[in-house]
Structures are given as C-alpha cells and as structure tokens.
Amino acid sequence: HEAWQRRLVEAGARPTPIIDRFYFRSIYFREPSGVLFEIATIGPGFAADEDQAHLGESLSLPPAFEHLRGQLEGILTPLPDPRRNLVKGLMR
Residue 50's CB: how many other CB atoms inside 10 A? Predict the structure, then answer.
C-alpha cells in the first residue's frame, strides 16, 4: 500500500493513511471530480477469524464492531445459505 500511496501522491492525489479494516487494509482517495476510490489488500481475508469451511454460517464482526453485535443481529436479515441447497441436491 505504501507504493500505491506514493504513486497517488505523484499523480496529485491525496490518499488517506493505510486503514486497518481487520479483514483487509485500505487507502482511499478522491479523483478530480470527487469520486471516492478505495484500494484494498486481498488479505488477511474473511477467514482471519473463522474456519473457512464454516464461513458465513454466523455473523462474524471485526473486533472494533463487536460491541454492536446485539444491535446488528436485531436489524440484519439472515441470508439463505446456498450451500445447504447444494448439499440437499446432491443427497437426492
């Protein structure tokens, strides 16, 4: 990300510092007409805090948002797990 920051500064942009989003790191900058862009790393990824075989089975939150769990679980609509239908189809 440091290299991207340097390139953006050289191009006249004003990138943010590197922001740790727990699952990835990001920098942000605005292009001349004001559109906000994000450059994010691929890792560490969403498997940073849960087993890859069980990704998405429960709500995982980065530590900075864990204190909001009660509120979030009350307003978020659970999504169907497409893997369940796949397994059911294979069992027929």
Answer: 13
CB 23 within 8 Å of CB 48: yes
Q: Report, as ranges of residue numbers, the positions in the chain whose pLDDT lies below 50.
A: none
pTM tops 0.85, yes or no: no
- What domains can you pick out in the chain, each with its CATH number? 2-47+59-91 (3.10.180.10)
68-88 pLDDT, tens per residue?
A: 999 999 899 888 877 776 655
What's CA 47's distance to the chain center, in Å? 11
> Element (H or E) spanning 71, and its range?
helix 69-75
Residue 22: alpha-carbon gap to chain centroid = 8
What are the φ and ψ backbone dihedral angles of 3, each rounded to 5 degrees?
-65, -40
CB count within 10 Å of CB 27 equals 20
